[in-house]
Amino acid sequence: MRALVTGGGRGIGAGIARALAGDGWDVVVGARSGGQVQAVAGEIGGEWVQVDVSDRDSVQRMVAQAGEVDLLVANAGVSEGHAQRPSWEIDVDEWWRVYEVNVLGVHLCCRAVIPGMLERGRGRIVITGSGAAYLPGSSQTAYAASKAAAVRYGETLAGQLDGRIPVFPISPGLVKTEMTSRFPDDAPWTPDECAPVLVRELASGRFDRLSGRYLHAEHDPPDELEGRIDEILENDLNAIRLRRA
After folding, report:
1. Dist. CA 150–CA 147, nearest whole Å
2. For residue 152, how many C-alpha atoms fall within 13 Å in the half-sphere facing its CB?
3. Beta-strand (E) ranges in 121-245?
4. Among 36-40, 87-91, 201-205, where is mean pLDDT lowest?
5. Is 214 a catalytic site residue?
């Protein structure tokens, strides 16, 4: 079985790549940082590719090199940067770049692997979202809105692929990475291992009934989640919804 992990050169993506390799997956890691993905691939005995997920041709080359992908982990993501600037003071291209990576990048990667998955009759997709998609108080307009779009995209795509390819939008939680280095030491950090554990369980097929549901790596631990599947489906939980009083 072959997995493709974007944003796999460091942080959450690298952790996911290591966990999948530990389970026996052949893993291809992709990112813009060629040196970093090469190092991760060397560590896990996998393959690597340098890719810009916001570029259609680059994504097509990545998928062609990866071959028959059974699991896509669309993990690559960026934010507006560490400076807490008002959105109207951020350069338009910098602001839009967040959407190009976090939303267009997810779509291009999914679009590239889905035809092959459908033809082979197997495959799963995991999309890395964020709690910023729904939690109040975010200070970054591009990041929060782009992650909300990615989560909603995952739910909608799951509907289109119902019964054929499960799609899981997830949140890794607040993990200590380069992107989150601006947060204080006493922030409610999520343990590094939570996201890799969740992804490896989703890859197993154990939770295919929850395709399209937003799953949190820390708040939805797999052993507890399995017992809640019927409750989640019956009550339309784990989804971004407007609840009117």
Report:
1. 5
2. 13
3. 124-128, 167-171, 215-216
4. 87-91
5. no
- Check 99, 134, 143, 153 and give the catalytic one: 143
Let me know: does 231 contact 204? Beta carbons within 8 Å.
Answer: no
What is the pLDDT confidence band of residue 121, given thresholds at 50, 70 and 90?
A: very high
Do 109 and 56 touch, CB atoms closer than 8 A? Answer: no
Q: Give every CB contact of residue 76 below 8 A, 6+ residues apart in sequence.
A: 6, 7, 13, 30, 31, 53, 101, 105
* Residue for token pair 């204080």: 184
φ, ψ (nearest 5 deg) of residue 4: -120, 120
Q: Which of 193, 205, 215, 220 is nearest to 14 (CA)?
A: 193
For the chain, the C-alpha Rg in angstroms (whole number) is 17
Q: What angle do helix axes 11-22 and 34-44 make, rounded to 10 degrees?
A: 20
* pTM for the whole structure: 0.93
Per-residue confidence at 198, pLDDT binned at 50, 70, 90? very high
